[in-house]
Design brief:
By secondary structure, this protein is of the alpha/beta class. It contains 15 helices and 14 strands.
Length: 397
């Protein structure tokens, strides 16, 4: 089958969309499908793959802005992953040729619009390119927080799904959020699988030595940005509660690019700055060492659509604690992850329990491993290709 994957996120970007797209494309190609990945690439033609689009980096952001023009090649299905200029170009490409569209909803645009000004700007661009007759007052409403923005983002959601044959939601939470906009568009819950990790028993010792963490000190790990939508202040306050019970505990924040001074100031106010380690993003192949060096993954975000780090931690035998009940159900087995209310006391108490209650910890670790073993790449691939075959067959008939 010939599938065009379309994404505004370049694969070198260390974030969830790029990770999910890269995993999906690799599985499809390994199974013998013809896959073109249209995503931002280098500006120079000599360094760019033929399927990549010329792009330039966006100042202060870890992504690139690409020329939204897809090569005209034979395709059976268009799989869109983003709603930026490249994603919109994919929708228009499919509409002009009568091709079916599979759309994976990776990002909660409504939640992110409150934190990233480019979301409303991109929404205005997408709406106009897809035929919404927005006037200046509509674009002005998009630019301002409040009911007007929410209404227009919902209108854009309905427009995007009207261009979509099947919407893939990476979690039941995301499927429920998109259902009011879907109309006749079919929604399928299809989480991204987590590959089996490569074990290295020395990772724990080496990384702790580099960070100067005692071998027996409890280490909490958070992976990802420390921007406000990820609730880093809640994490720091909960960690302060843990330290009252476990004074030797350490907190490692991996993937910190922005807001480092604000995080350090908050840590000083809470009296935990001496136990905090802020680490920049590392290549994907190095993230596993940090999971193996930790004792617990702490996840305070409520804006994620899947939270790939949850499955990654569980694949490495790490228990997770979270505050988003919408992402508590594990794929594959349907067991649930430990969840607490989003307060420092409640979340801190859950963190302490998972660090000290041996029986609870063993059960959570075993359930996490079972989930990763059950939701394999081959199972994901079988469901995804069945969807491709159905929509492509319907389009031909």
């Amino acid at each position: 089958m010939r599938i065009a994957h379309v994404s505004d996120s370049h694969l070198a970007n260390i974030e969830g969309v790029a990770t999910s797209v890269g995993a999906t494309v690799a599985l499809l190609r390994a199974a013998g499908h013809q896959v073109a990945l249209h995503c931002p690439g280098p500006l120079s033609r000599r360094r760019r793959h033929p399927d990549e689009l010329p792009s330039v980096p966006v100042p202060t952001r870890p992504y690139r802005l690409a020329l939204p023009r897809l090569p005209d090649a034979p395709v059976d299905v268009v799989h869109v992953h983003t709603t930026g200029p490249v994603g919109v170009a994919g929708l228009r490409f499919a509409a002009a040729r009568g091709l079916p569209v599979v759309f994976t909803w990776h990002t909660d645009l409504v939640a992110y619009a409150a934190y990233y000004p480019e979301i409303p700007i991109g929404a205005g661009y997408a709406g106009l390119r897809l035929g919404l007759r927005w006037r200046a007052r509509d674009l002005w409403a998009l630019a301002r927080p409040g009911p007007g923005r929410q209404a227009r983002l919902a209108e854009l959601g309905r427009c995007l799904l009207a261009h979509t044959t099947v919407l893939l939601a990476p979690s039941a939470k995301t499927a429920a959020a998109m259902a009011p906009m879907a109309g006749p568009t079919r929604i399928v819950v299809l989480p991204t699988p987590i590959p089996a990790p490569a074990d290295d028993a020395d990772d724990r010792r080496r990384l702790r030595a580099r960070l100067r963490v005692p071998a027996d000190a409890p280490v909490l790990l958070a992976v990802g940005r420390t921007t406000p939508e990820k609730s880093p202040r809640l994490l720091l306050a909960a960690f302060a509660r843990v330290r009252r019970e476990l004074p030797d505990a350490r907190l490692v924040l991996l993937g910190v690019r922005r807001h480092r001074p604000a995080v350090r100031r908050a840590a000083r106010r809470l009296g935990v700055a001496d136990a905090l380690h802020l680490l920049p993003p590392v290549p994907r192949e190095q993230v596993g060492a940090h999971y193996r060096a930790a004792d617990l993954l702490a996840f305070t975000s409520t804006t994620d659509t899947q939270g790939l780090v949850l499955g990654e931690a569980e694949a490495h035998g790490l228990p997770v604690a979270m505050v988003d009940a919408g992402l508590a159900t594990r794929p594959g087995t349907g067991t649930t992850r430990p969840v607490a209310a989003g307060t420092p006391e409640a979340f801190g108490a859950l963190l302490s329990r998972l660090l000290t209650d041996v029986e609870l910890r063993q059960r959570v670790v075993a359930e996490g491993r079972d989930s990763c073993a059950a939701w394999t790449g081959q199972r994901y691939l079988a469901e995804l290709t069945a969807i491709y075959s159905t929509v492509a067959g319907a389009a031909r008939s």
